[in-house]
Design brief:
By secondary structure, the chain is α+β, with helices and mostly antiparallel strands. It is built from three helices and eleven strands. The chain has one domain (9-200): PPM-type phosphatase domain (Phosphatase 2c, domain 1), CATH 3.60.40.10.
Length: 205
Amino acid sequence: METIREPVVEYGVAKFALPGQGESGDHHLVCCNQNGVLIAAIDGIGHGEEAADAAKAAASILKAGVDEPIISLVEECHEKLRATRGVVLSVASIDAAHGMMSWLGVGNVQGVLMRADTKKGNPQETLLLRAGVVGSRLPPLQAIVLPIAKGDTLFFVTDGISRDFADTLSAFGDAQKTAERILERYRIGSDDALALVARLTGIRS
């Protein structure tokens, strides 16, 4: 009997484009792969159309190689974005069957994992960000691997959102409403902004 595969994540996204620019330079990707799902938040350097073009190009590269290891994906983005302004990004690969997540960040797209069961490790894990620009100055890359469980929630925010956003996070609540609340409360207003909230729903316990 064939089992119905449960969606790996429920997610919500809230975005703000700097007035007068027409298009946000901040983009996201949530894309299923063979083992689970690839999630990324991407901030094109600067503002406007050129920043948006760089961010969209990065999203396309990630989507095309969705089953590759995330270090290889970021290296590929670096090579193919050399002619653009470049981007900063954070990316996570969710392995639903094994209950694992690998993630890495280049630049200042913040990442936080909130655990639904605080008895299983730290209640809040923060992504270690490495200084650099994908397409210009790529730092040495190291993916961190964490155990994850059903109900854990991943947050990615670009630098148009204050670092204080992490002070009031919870693993519970509607993902879309949570993303909108983060954007409303913590948006700086002087830059494009994006908040991505992904709750892990299809992880084996």
